[in-house]
Amino acid sequence: MAPVRAGLIGLGRMGKAIASRLKSEGVEVYAWNRTLTKARELDVLVSDTPASASTRADFIILSLYDSAAVREVLTMRHGLLSAGLKGKVIVDTTTNHFSEVSAFHSILKERGASYLEAPLLGSIVQAMTGNLCVLVSGEEAPYRAALPIIEKLGREIFFLREPGLATKVKLINNLLLGSFMASIAEATALSEKAGLDRHAALDIFSKGAGSSAVMDAKKEKLLKEDYAAHFKTSLMYKDLHYLQDLARELRSPLFTAGVAKELFAVAMSRGSGEEDFSAVYKAVKNL
Fold it and tell me: What is the CA radius of gyration of the chain?
């Protein structure tokens, strides 16, 4: 049986983890990245353009920074829209702006392709082991067709059908992620000012009200002050900004997300934009 062929557009941290996972599962990966050296660092088939990556692939996976990057990959010279997309399924794992995904659904449908928004919940490690949670919106037939490849990435998969809903839920999920991280950072910094050692504070919180997946994932980073990026501060800031736009459209108040977003803005202003979002601890500590 011929291997499944996937075009992978975008080789940031998550994109690289997706490439590694798909390769380990026997998928033939055709990768494109704006900086081609990133593609050549991996054991994948390097494509010169998004169009060429898509031509050879059964499925096209996008893993990009934001909606502006997705739109550019679609419309640039030799972008995806310049290729023959009829019958192709595009699985977009980017955390997009909710208004943009509606446009992406329409644009790709006009070209005869199927667009699935499929934002991911989880870490780089979970991506490499196929243990992500994947939220999917789009038509059912392409979802069923793409499910075997989605299942290589995610242990928990939620098919939400309605276009835009998966993206909206991902943004709301990141309200919890960002707020938890900001609260852990603030509680740790406050405990140190009160005279408690950081190690002791984090041990106590992890056994009490701070016990959470966020604490489990970020405790060692705070202890070691190791801010090598798993999920960038700039990405968290971007997602919370998108979330505020969603709340405005829904005419719903949004309290904790606004405070958290501004704390991540402080972290960015102090040079932590490319660091892990746990670096918000440094910003809070020095306020």
Answer: 20
Cβ partners under 8 Å of residue 277, min gap 6: 178, 181, 231, 232, 233, 235, 236, 264, 267
- State yes or no: pLDDT of 1 exceeds 70: no
Contact between 243 and 137 under an 8 Å Cβ cutoff? The reply is no
Is the four-CA dihedral 113, 117, 120, 124 of positive or negative sign? positive
Set out the domains of the chain in order of their start, with CATH numbers. 5-161 (3.40.50.720), 168-285 (1.10.1040.10)
pTM for the whole structure: 0.94
Residue 21 predicted with pLDDT over 80: yes
* Tokens describing residue 260: 């958290």
Residues 156/134, Cβ–Cβ less than 8 Å: yes
Question: Higher pLDDT residue, 36 or 138?
Answer: 138
